[in-house]
UniProtKB/TrEMBL annotation:
A Pfam family that the UniProt record links to this protein: Adenylsucc_synt
UniProt-listed SUPFAM superfamilies: P-loop containing nucleoside triphosphate hydrolases
GO BP terms in the entry: 'de novo' AMP biosynthetic process; IMP metabolic process
Gene3D superfamilies in the cross-refs: Adenylosuccinate Synthetase, subunit A, domain 3
GO MF term set: adenylosuccinate synthase activity; nucleotide binding
InterPro entries: Adenylosuccinate_synth_dom3, Adenylosuccinate_synthetase, P-loop_NTPase
Species of provenance: freshwater metagenome
GO cellular component term, pick one: cytoplasm
Protein name per Swiss-Prot or TrEMBL: Unannotated protein
Amino acid sequence: MPGWSEDISKVRSEAELPQAVTNYLNFIEEFVGVPVIMVGVGPGHDQIIWRGDYGPPAA
């Protein structure tokens, strides 16, 4: 499976992810049979991307 070399640490939405990342996440979902609902793109709490219809829990 092809990887990616782009820096994704500044990505803040699913639409901004490189296609190779989306393909990888889709593969994981199919392989394990559960949705990947959040993706960390760095160490910060603001570096989490929520996928699909999911979003952060209500405060």
